[in-house]
Amino acid sequence: MIKEIVQYPTPLSLKYSTDVRNFDEDLFSLIDDLKDTMSENNLDGLAAFQIGNYHNVIVVKNQDGEVLEMMNPRLIGHKGKVTTRESTAYYPGRTSEITRFEEISVVYQGRDGKDCHMKAIGSFAILLQRKIDYTFGATFIHKMSPEQRDMFENGLEFGADIGPSDYCPTVFQRDKIIKLINIIMIIMILNVFGSFFFSAKAILDTMWEYQLYGSYAVVFFNIVYFFYAQYEGKKYVACSSCQIGNIFGTTVISLIKLTLLMSASYFLINPL
Description:
Strands 1-2-3-4-5 form a five-stranded antiparallel β-sheet, with helices on both faces. Helix 4 packs antiparallel against helix 5 and helix 5 packs antiparallel against helix 6. Helix content is 44%, strand content 21%. By secondary structure, the protein is of the alpha+beta class. It has two domains: 25-160, Peptide Deformylase (Alpha-Beta Complex), CATH 3.90.45; 174-268.
């Protein structure tokens, strides 16, 4: 019997599949339902989880097109890594680059309950890994890096696949440069306040030198920030109207703050 495939946004149950213990007519009926549903939807594999059944059962087509019935599959060995663009029936019309094992070893039980062992490589290995993921209540989104997941979830929100050029992150690497600039300026401000407690020319000379070195560092890191931010922003076309427009303003504001701070330092610290 053809069953409805669970699709996003209907949540998958985040729990492990229940291992098959009874190899009976109920199990055979489930296997037939999986095969009928897989054939109807022109799929290469299907897990019981995908039709709302929580038994540890998957059916997959091997390299020869033969349908394998696999109960309680377990990945027991792997070798190599490969990155490919994958799709899954849970997220219809969505794809993402996923890194998986290139070659795997799997143990499982057949329809008759007998223990079986097999090795798989290439696209068939990737298919098996995807289906075994479902037996843990997971999809390929759980294999993504945080940045990939953000991009993918943005694609779900806006209704299309998006790549790095279409994605605008909320946190950039250049923000670390701004944090460093702010730390240097905070130290310079503390140096200004510290000058109120000293009157010796030698000490004030040293404090003034610290201010000069600090100002050189702030100017240097602002230059680094400006050019690196331009480079980083070009990777995200979607940011051209929001984030990239702030780069120039951020740099100017930072330099204005530095100018005011050095003006105050000149009158308060510089002993000349």
